[in-house]
Amino acid sequence: MMSRASDAIHPIPAYAHAPILLLIIGFLMLQPLSTDLYLASLPSLATVFAVPASTVQLTLSLFVAGFGGAQLAIGPLSDRYGRRPVLLAGLSLYVVASLLCAAAPGIQLLIVARFLQALGCCSAIIIARAIVRDAYAPADSARVIARASSWLSLAPLLGPILGSYLQVGFGWRAAFVVHSILGLCLLAAVVMRLPETNAHKDPRATEMAGLVENFKLVLGAREFWANALPGALSYGSIFAFISGSSLVLIRVLNVPTEWFGYCFAFAVSGYLAGTIACRRLLPKFGQTATQRIGGTLSLTAGALFLMAVGFGALHWTLVVGAMFLTMFAHGISFPVAQSGSVTPFPRQAGTAAGLMGALTMSVAFLVGTAVGASFDGTLYPLAIIVCVLGATIFVSVRLIGATHAEVAP
């Protein structure tokens, strides 16, 4: 993950004194750590609180719902009041909510606290994307996201493994204690080192008329959909594995529970490799071609997975291999989608980032619901869902992305 000197990217001079890239990496890591770190504790939660697995699943699904919905508000708030105050409020809420999770005496409070935790976590992700637009030249934004994503991949790579050891050594509350410590560290870093990067505050961003105007501007732009739709679908393809891999690996293919974290970590290494590939592809081929490469790989991964299942290949290496290829494709596509959906809107960067994030979480929620509802004890439902998503990613890139490439100035 070490970058070459020729690959160096620096913020614009006004922010050269601040560790902008390091802070962006920390903000982006908060989301995967907020989910992956406690995945190994889900079975224990059902036992401790004597509730069905479907009730425990609400701690994950309502986190996704809260995270998605909050983005519609956090983006405009940061356009109106600035990135720094919204981020300080969000991280403070995250720390308090994480402590509530750790101290929860019952599943009901844990579910509510997880929802609040999602609101705080959301602020970090949205502000990170907006800061990229504020502090870096537009030509560098995709490379900045790709570089941050390379380091970001360490969170889902190591999170499930660390979470497993925390569960075995200290119980389910330990993961949320770690969340609160991480939130405190980021909060302190923002207080001490992050300047305000929003140089174009929009006083009408939170007024109803201003919101509607900004939403219409962003949602009416083909450039937004050319990036946000493939990006959301790409995230949906990996979320299918996030929500379904434990079911098929442990229940269907009889992988020991203690080995699940390592299988998941190997698959996530595909995302790390994809982000590194993205950083190499962008200078050579540009954003449109790089996005098409990612879309083609998504289709290939899904089609090969479904074909292998159809031919009767029932082995854990098939699932892990399909996860690796899908996450590799996501690592190429998603940095381009994140930067491309925000870059055209310098004065509505927060709004654009929020809309892109809300779309992404909506797709993830639908995919997770479909995976859970369709599980039948075989690999077919997961393989079909991943293949369909790969096809839709490919089509959306070719249709909307091709049109975008023609009209872009």
UniProtKB/TrEMBL annotation:
Q: Which residues cross the membrane?
A: 12-30, 50-74, 86-105, 111-132, 144-166, 172-194, 232-253, 259-282, 349-373, 379-400
Q: Where in the cell is it found?
A: Cell inner membrane; Cell membrane
- Gene Ontology annotations of biological process type: xenobiotic detoxification by transmembrane export across the plasma membrane
What GO cellular component entries does it have? Answer: plasma membrane
Domain of life of the organism encoding this protein? Bacteria
What keywords does the record list, in alphabetical order?
Answer: Cell inner membrane, Cell membrane, Membrane, Transmembrane, Transmembrane helix, Transport
Question: Major facilitator superfamily (MFS) profile domain: from which residue to which, for each copy?
Answer: 20-408
Membrane topology type, per the record?
Answer: Multi-pass membrane protein
Please give the chief subcellular localization of this protein. Answer: membrane
Q: Name one GO molecular function term.
A: xenobiotic transmembrane transporter activity
**Record's family?**
Belongs to the major facilitator superfamily. Bcr/CmlA family.
Q: What is this protein called?
A: Bcr/CflA family efflux transporter
